[in-house]
Amino acid sequence: MKYHIWTVGCQMNVADTRKLAAGLDRAGCIATDAPEDADLVVLNTCSVREHAEDRAIGQLGRLKKLRGRGREFRIAVMGCMVGPRDEDLRRRFPYVDVFARPQDFAPVMELAGIDDSGGEFWPTTFGEPNAPTAYVPVIHGCDKFCTYCIVPYRRGREKSRTIDEISREVEHYCARGVREVTLLGQTVEAYGRGLEPGGLEAGRWRADDRGRPPDLADLMRAIHDVPGLERIRFLTSYPKDMTARIVDTVAELPKVCDSFNIPVQAGDDAVLTRMRRGYTLAEYLEKFEMVKARIADAAMVTDIIVGFCGETDAEFRHTYELLERLRFDKVHVAAYSPRPGTIAHRTLADDVPPEVKQERLQAIEQLEARISFEINQRLLDSEQDVLVEHRREGRWSGRNRAGKLVHFEGDAETGAMVRVRIGRATAWSLQGTALPAPVPA
Ligand code: SAM
Ligand code: SF4
Question: Is the pLDDT at 206 greater than 70, yes or no?
């Protein structure tokens, strides 16, 4: 059986796709890049914003046409578009064979004619890496219920994987050429929650090791010395869950990159309250300062939503001023997109006109382009260690420790760590030339 998986959305979805592909491969199926050649097409969907859903719906339209032309194949829709109740989806897309919630691979496997009910299949199924970097989910779901966000309804409650299972996965990847892993969680510092004391079975931590559940710092230490591993990243930080212990561990462990993605979402307390983010601006700033006090040159990234329900000009200005003040290395900005089923959709009016949302989005993008440009100019003539990810259009590309994209010329190979002298810097990337590798003593 040939299968094709189409993926949109966050790194968690990319990781879910890889896991499903690994399961299908293990059962003897063969991947194909072309949906028209496949016997099974899986759409791994996102519903964080309406636009992402629209893309999946467009894709479904194309598959329906393909079926209309006589091609016979099965269709599975997986991921965040699928909630606990799928009657509505079944009605809208009657030609879809199966709807599967995020991480619920069983219905897709069944559709492919594979029995994975034994329980042993998934914990020992890891993907074949096709790059020197890999995403490793460490905690699934989210308990925070920010009012705008669909994730807790679709990905369920926080549930951590055991350190043993994660370590096995990291060892598996590194034995196959991976040099960098990114530990993933919607709120990655919540790692450890949802584990129970006990033996070694799935979902349990070992009571004989520590008198408390493990946290992200324990996890980083546990995988730090895996042979071949050179860098550890982690995403996404939830300001309230961040502890001094975790930041100290990042500072101490040489392989953990000093790069923090801490979404603030808004720079105004009234907006943060309406979003039910669970912190005030002052509390956010405390966490930001805690990181900077321990790791002065940490790269800082944040997420912003503009045009959230009731956002006034003054409230938006506070967000803008915050970004001017904190000077993040990178800002992910999105216009608020109401999601049916969320608290905001039920209780707050989406009253910022689309053109105002667009203006605010552009204002943040322009500010961010200026700040990133200024920050990157300071890296001119510096030397950066770049983990090489690929070669395209005659140049190599990879990322430095801070996570910045670097394009360069010279001698390299995929998976190598190359020292690059930076000759040019824009808001979005650095460009330079590889320095000769040091001769071993
Ligand atoms: N857990 C992380 C956090 O606490 O922010 C991020 C996960 S969320 C799935 C990724 C980003 O999508 C958020 O940071 C937010 O900026 C954006 N997002 C979530 N819901 C949104 C919505 N309804 N409209 C626009 N952007 C949204
Ligand atoms: Fe969504 Fe908030 Fe959870 Fe992030 S913390 S996934 S924004 S509910």
Answer: no
